[in-house]
Design a protein that fits this description.
By secondary structure, this protein is of the alpha/beta class. It contains 13 helices and ten strands. The strands form two sheets. The chain has a five-stranded parallel β-sheet, with helices on both faces. The protein has a five-stranded parallel β-sheet with strand order 7-8-6-9-10, sandwiched between helices. The longest helix is centred in the middle third of the chain and has 16 residues. This is Putative transcriptional regulator, NadR family.
């Protein structure tokens, strides 16, 4: 029985890693994949381990999480190779016959382990990507991120502000321009389907429905997701109409983090419809939304002017966000839990 070995950070796992593992498995009976992590890394090791288990559900591929705080380069320690040999031997349960890599260190590692080295796509011609590229510019290299883990790398942009400031119009235009998804205001669709007037009891299902929409839309978004309002808006309106708060809603409204917010000013005409009734309170509601943004510690970008000016300003700003690195907050356990709703979103 031929036993193969692959080791790496998988920081994050990408399609190059999956190609390496797929090709290696063709050449051995059993493959051990050592997923190595350090405490200082921005994507937690436990999350990467969970991803690897999800991406590689093959009983003949064993994923092992290595937590040893080992040196990363030979120049960091005089016993570099012996340290890694000890780590590898302590995390594998049988003799290694072949080590597979896409790295230049493969020959040296195989020599230390006393086994064969088979390089796979060493020049990265088949899958031209690296973990560093994805961490630094995830949207530019989005196609190389495996589909199940893409939502963690989606840049979520909230459009916020008081009623009748053009959030829906702008969200649609931005999603069209950047060829991705946007989430409509869940409350509007929910209330339009109701046969009775809005009640305080509507706010929790509205909040949960909106969050569920965000979670689902992120799965198919192409690097960016635009939200027409969010739970902070729901919280503001609950306070305005009923002077109440709901702990579940408050925790998420103040705790959920986004890559940025576009705050739309009130310098366009207010338009009445059957779900708008605060036209006389525009200035006061604008102030309340600004207070809520500060309370939630949200950074935001002002969007002002007529509709064409707003669109231009927003596109220019989102283009800057597109070029940014991955958001470390997105990988925290706290954010994952805050976006977990449960099997019944209305419960």
């Amino acid at each position: 029985m031929i036993h193969g070995l692959i080791l790496g950070k998988f920081y994050p796992p990408h399609k190059g890693h999956l190609h390496l593992i797929k090709e290696a498995k063709k050449k051995c009976d059993v493959l051990t994949v050592l997923m190595c992590s350090l405490e200082k890394e921005l994507i937690p090791g436990n999350l990467r381990y969970e991803w690897m288990l999800e991406l590689l559900p093959n009983p003949n591929i064993e994923i092992v999480w290595v937590k040893d705080e080992n040196p990363q380069y030979p120049e960091e320690h005089p016993n570099f190779w012996q340290i890694w040999k000890q780590t590898i031997n302590s995390h594998t349960n049988q003799q290694i016959d072949i080590v597979f890599t896409s790295e230049l260190y493969g020959d040296q590692l195989a020599s230390v382990l006393g086994c064969q080295h088979i390089p796979i796509d060493i020049d990265r011609k088949v899958v031209p990507i690296s973990g560093t590229q994805i961490r630094e510019k995830p949207i530019q290299f989005f196609e190389w991120i495996p589909e199940p883990i893409r939502p963690y790398f989606v840049k979520r942009i909230v459009l916020t502000g008081s009623e009748s400031v053009g959030k829906t119009t702008l969200a649609k235009k931005l999603a069209d321009h950047f060829q991705t998804n946007w989430i409509p205001e869940y409350a509007r669709d929910y209330l339009e389907k109701k046969s009775t007037p809005m009640a305080e009891s509507d706010f929790l299902p509205i909040a949960k429905g909106h969050l569920l929409s965000e979670v689902e839309a992120a799965k198919s978004s192409h690097g960016i997701l635009f939200l027409d309002t969010d739970l902070l808006t729901t919280k503001v309106y609950l306070e305005r109409y009923y002077q109440r708060e709901i702990p579940w809603l408050t925790e998420r409204a103040l705790g959920l983090q986004y890559d940025t917010s576009l705050f739309l000013d009130i310098d366009i005409p207010w338009e009445k419809d059957k779900l708008r009734d605060l036209g006389e309170e525009r200035e006061g509601m604008k102030t309340r939304f600004l207070e809520a943004m500060e309370e939630a510690k949200r950074d935001f970008f002002w969007v002002k002017g007529n509709f064409m000016e707003r669109e231009r300003l927003a596109i220019d700003y989102v283009n800057q966000i597109k070029e940014g690195p991955m958001n470390p907050v997105a990988f925290t356990k706290e954010q994952t839990l805050l976006r977990t709703i449960g099997s019944d979103p209305m419960a």
